[in-house]
Design a protein that fits this description.
The chain is mostly helical. The protein has one domain. It has nine helices and two strands. A two-stranded antiparallel sheet has the order 1-2. A hairpin with a 3-residue loop joins strand 1 and strand 2. Helix 4 crosses helix 8 (213-241) and helix 7 packs across helix 8 (213-241). The longest helix is centred in the middle third of the chain and has 29 residues, at 83-111. It is globular.
Length: 278
């Protein structure tokens, strides 16, 4: 299993890094749209759709992204790119995403609600997936390195949580949702992200660092909490759907949503903050 995970991870990096650093903005946006199709197909598994329903949902995600790219090319880095152009589209996706993750999700996890039927599942899926895809496209305008460093906040949280949980984890964080997560792991994630954030401050968006060290530290802690919330949310959906992984697209790792679960709750809010204060 470890060998498979390593091979898959290397293959992902071999594909991701050249695309991230070499593709022009609109080509990168189209690649993100293609990934959204796979994520949408996996989301259909959470909704317990059949094979055709899942394919239709994946195709729908791609078509929505494609329509946005064609209708608002400047918002994705095309000719006429500006913060105003980015905000023109972004506000319609990032604001609902922020309300969902900051206000609805704490209640959702506490009550362990299931997805509310097909229509409700589609709405929730749109709020989770579409802002993430837009953020992946728009944050790249800050530079490929900045986008990569921002995504690495989640990776730092995961790594620190894993080692802190193994070393000190006793008290469970959410045993009815994800039995493997502990409070020690959560605090380890906070510590790991703070260390990483201040070490990589020169690479992270300036919007996170407005006001000095204390606001920056608060932003890093908030992102860590959001990353944990995103992870728990997907764990809850998988548990309710009776599946272990979102799919088997990535051998040893599960599916696309298993890799970006915490990114769905962090990237849209980083993009919202950037467009709001810049």
């Amino acid at each position: 299993m470890l060998r498979t995970r390593v091979i898959t991870a290397l293959a992902l990096l071999a594909g991701l890094l050249p695309a991230l650093f070499l593709l022009p903005p609109l080509a990168w946006a189209w690649l993100v749209a293609a990934v959204s199709a796979l994520a949408g197909w996996e989301w259909g598994g959470f909704m317990r759709l059949g094979g055709r329903g899942r394919v239709a949902l994946g195709a729908g995600c791609f078509l929505l992204c494609a329509a946005a790219i064609l209708a608002f090319p400047a918002a994705f880095g095309g000719v006429g790119w500006s913060l105003a152009a980015a905000w023109e589209l972004g506000r319609w996706l990032y604001v609902p995403a922020a309300l969902f993750w900051l206000c609805a999700l704490p209640l959702w996890l506490r009550a362990r609600w299931p997805l509310p039927g097909v229509a409700g599942g589609l709405v929730v899926g749109a709020v989770v997936l579409l802002p993430t895809c837009l953020a992946l496209a728009q944050l790249r305008q800050l530079g490929p390195t900045t986008l990569l460093a921002t995504m690495a906040v989640v990776w730092a949280a995961d790594i620190a949580a894993y080692f802190a949980g193994r070393a000190f984890g006793k008290r469970k964080l959410a045993p009815n949702i994800s039995p493997g997560k502990t409070w020690a792991g959560a605090w380890g994630a906070v510590a790991g992200v703070l260390v990483y954030g201040f070490a990589a401050a020169g690479l992270l968006p300036e919007a996170l660092q407005r006001g000095g060290a204390l606001p920056f530290a608060a932003a890093l802690v908030a992102l860590t909490a959001l990353s944990i919330v995103g992870d728990l949310f997907e764990s809850l959906l998988k548990r309710q759907a009776g599946i272990k992984d979102s799919s088997q697209l990535l051998p040893g790792h599960g599916g696309i949503l298993d890799r970006i679960d915490s990114q769905t709750s962090t990237l849209p809010l980083v993009a919202l903050l950037w467009l709001t204060v810049s």
